[in-house]
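Exercise 3.2. Students should predict the tertiary structure of the chain below and write it as C-alpha cells, then compare their answer with the key that follows.

Predict this chain's 3D structure.
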Amino acid sequence: MFKRIDHIEIVTAEPERTEKFYLEVLGFKLRSRVRVERSHVGAPMNLAYLDLGGTTVELISYEGASVDRAPANEHLGYRMMALEVDDMPKTLEYLKTKGIEPVWGPITREEYARAEIRDPNGFHIELRQWIR
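Answer key:
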C-alpha cells in the first residue's frame, strides 16, 4: 500500500540560489521543471524536481514572493512529505477505516493521482500514485 517517501517539498523565495545549492553543493541532479500558471495561491508556481539516489526534493517558488513576503495562504520552508502509494482508492479506503479522511483531493491528472491527509499534529502528508 505505502511504498516509499516519494518527495519532500520546500517552498523558496530564492529558487536559483536554492537550486544551485542542491545541485552544485549536495550533488542532486535536475530531473524536470514544471510551471503551473494558476496555482492555489493565485500566483504562477515554478517547480524543480531534484533527485539524489532516488530521493526527490521538489523546490517550489511563486512569482512575486520574496524572503520577507510569502504568497497568500503559503509559507516559506519545508511544506510536507509525500508518500508514494500503489492504489489511491484502496489507500483512502484503508485510511478511512482508521478514521482518517483526506483534507484535499483526491485528484487525478494524466501522470498521477494526489490527495493529502494530516498526521495527529496537523502536518500535511501528500499521497501520490504515479500513473505510468
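Discussion points: The beta strands are 2-11, 29-36, 45-52, 55-62, 77-85, 104-108, 112-118, 124-130. The mean pLDDT is 87.
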